[in-house]
Amino acid sequence: MLNVTVLVSGGGTNLQAIMDAIDDGRIRNARVTHVISNNPNAYALERARKHGNIEAEVLSPKSFPSRADFNEAFYQRLMEIRPDLIVLAGFLVVIPESVVRAFPHKIINIHPSLIPSFCGKGYFGLHVHEKALARGVKVTGATVHFVDEGTDTGPIILQKVVSIEEGDTPEVLQKRVMEQAEWKILPEAINLIAAGRVSVGEDRIVHISK
Ligand code: GRF
Asked: Pairing relation of β-strands 139-146 and 55-58?
């Protein structure tokens, strides 16, 4: 059984998609044991509490005198939990290097574009979709990738394409990318990892076995 900790900052629709997929059997051999939010008002915490059997907790940089102190507390908490997999589901805090090193290929992130387009520093939330529309691309999508020391630079696990339509606003596009891509490929990636089907080569290419 894969013990999963989900890190969130906001509404938690991706967390909901994971919990639903576990409950209806689309994800097998995994359970969410902990949800950690940096934001005490994140609706994601409410979703975890409503679900039950999940520890929902807040760990905010704002409660610490410095970022280094927060990073240390965050690292210590994860070392206590010792999750088999950490899922960043709309988590807006930079993961400290100590955590990346302690959990090699055990941290995954969902990004709302087809990496390497529209990713990296400053590409989060609605900005990603604003930039895609401003560039005039005709397709976008979402990417699940492993987290390394960079921003959105880790090995790519799954991607799904979403069409851009005439008249799209960033908000409309964000919703379509979530519904058609994010809520599908994030649970799918967790299921593949729980089944032991995902490996990362020396060349940092992800392979998914049958
Ligand atoms: C998603 O668009 C995700 O890709 C991005 O943040 C958003 C999180 O939404 N990184 P939610 O909190 O899962 O509803």
From this structure: unpaired
